[in-house]
Amino acid sequence: MEILKLLENLENHSLETIYVLKAWKKLSDEKKIDKKYSFENFYNQEINVENLLNIFNNLSKTVKLFNIYKFNPEIYNKKDLIEMLNIVKKETLPNVNEIFYNSKTDGSYVSDQIAELGIKLLDNNFEELYVPFTHSFSYANFTNKKIYADFYMTKAAIIAELINILENKDIEFHMTNALKEPTFIDKNASHLLRKFDCVLSFPPIRVIEELDISKDIFDRFHFPKSKVLDIAHFEHVIAQTKNKALISLPVGFTYRSNNEENFRKKLIEENLLETIIILPRNILLGTQTEMTFFIINKNKLDNKIYFLNLNNDSFLIKSGKKTIFKDINEICDVYNNRKEISNISTIVEKEQIINNNYSLAIDRYIQDPIFENIQNKLEGFELIALEKIADVRRSQLLKDEEKGINVYEISPSDFISSNFTLECGKIKKIDKNIKKLELYKLEPYDVLLSTKGTIGGVAIIGEIKEPMVASQAIQVIRIKDTNNKKNKAITLYMFLKSDLGQSILSSLVFGTVMPQISTDEIKQLNIPILSKEQEFKLIENFELENRLNEEINEINKKIKLIHRNFLN
């Protein structure tokens, strides 16, 4: 414990130096270096900083660690060096990865549990493992197989060599940016990438950078529009996988539209995706972001995808202030046997994912039994996609210009419990953005749906006296049938407010930090086609609800009056 506290308080260059000295001592003890350059030989003479520099320079010709690590004699005096040498000689040092990569020192660290789970999900039956974009080495604690790894930082290269020497691992590390300059090449064909039996990757999250794919001779990248490198990281992993790969990505990758949707389509249509595993949020990785394991299998025998939600109390346990997995072997047993457990895991046909616009959001496939019962009720109706009967779009921001005409902005907090919404409190001045206002201003009988932050709030706009727009948290739904717009809008409003409508909306939500529903999901929302009698009944219910709410308001006024007039 004392040595751990001492090391944690050291500056990074001193910490590196102590571990390099420890590696030097181990190589010396094992007689793997010339005696004249050995630790003991140096220690038993008058300590001289310049002499150590000369020894390391000589060792750099034969030992990779000393070629990478650059000892700077100017930052150490004789006293400092003697103190470090004594620590190395007398103390047992903590695990290399543990001291250099942890939640205190590195925001992108990978916990031991996540690393162990990743290795075990790959079955650990591989002969070799490739780990691209590596920024910690916790996975090395859980396998003795040959590891190939790459990253562009010198720190990672030094730590890989320290692990090789101090922990007897076999890591071949290349210091490179694998997206721009991959270095693990097919030994028989320099224009081809080497393919590895298994690949494990925890790439940096949502890195934004221009990637010039025209220089890639390996034909890896097919989604050039995105500046976020998540897809590029995934494409590189696939390009170097022979059999199986596991890559961790933000949970948003399972449901976001545009490029990411097109990439998911590629995974499904080429039958590469085997499993989606949702990880517990904010507890196992050095990130606030929700993470997902994508497991690729290039030798799949069916067209099905397995979904497993580990963000469930049955897998978790409290350990002090942290939440950890109870039993990683139990998780692997569930995965290996593709067990289907209510509210936790399920096997999904490829066609079902296609019908869901290639969404891999786990809530689409693992549903509460109550919701399944409600879904069954929909089977009694003929259904139609909302976009066929209405225009749907998310409102856009109109900045307050502090002069011009008054425009009212409605937000979900302005929605009333029944009847038409006629006014709201927030006023903006619009002057130069009149054209944008004309595009986004609300019309009578627009149906508003809150789909960001507060989910499922519904309003219907009445007659408008002043220009009104919706906030960015709102989807505006405008009925196309201008001849029967009012009645159609009321029936849609009543459906979305119903238990049935609300349950369907809740199944489309993604994200926990900022829950939301995408515009595409709302457009594809299946709406019951109602008979004239059914529409008339909903309009009657709309009017009845309004009358009941008016009565409730009058009762509440009387109750307030009682409270206000205490003993008259």
Describe what this molecule looks like in 3D.
With 568 residues, this protein is α/β, with parallel strands linked by helices. The protein folds into 3 domains: 2-94, no CATH class; 105-366, Rossmann fold; 385-551, DNA methylase specificity domains (Adenine-n6-DNA-methyltransferase TaqI, Chain A, domain 2). The chain is built from 20 helices and 20 strands. Strands 3-2-1-4-5-7-6-8-11 form a 9-stranded mixed β-sheet, sandwiched between helices. Strands 13-19-16-17 form a 4-stranded antiparallel β-sheet. Strand 4, helix 10 (230-239) and strand 5 form a beta-alpha-beta unit. Helix 14 packs across helix 18 and helix 17 packs across helix 20 (532-564). The radius of gyration is 31 Å and the shape is elongated.
Main sheet: strands, sense, barrel:
9 strands, mixed
Query: Which structural class should the secondary elements be placed in?
Result: alpha/beta
Calculate Rg over CA atoms.
31 Å
- Total of domains: 3
- Note the overall shape: elongated
- CATH architecture term of the largest domain: 3-Layer(aba) Sandwich
The count of DSSP E runs of length 2 or more, i.e. the number of strands, is 20
Low-confidence stretches: none
Give me the CATH superfamily of the largest domain. Answer: Vaccinia Virus protein VP39
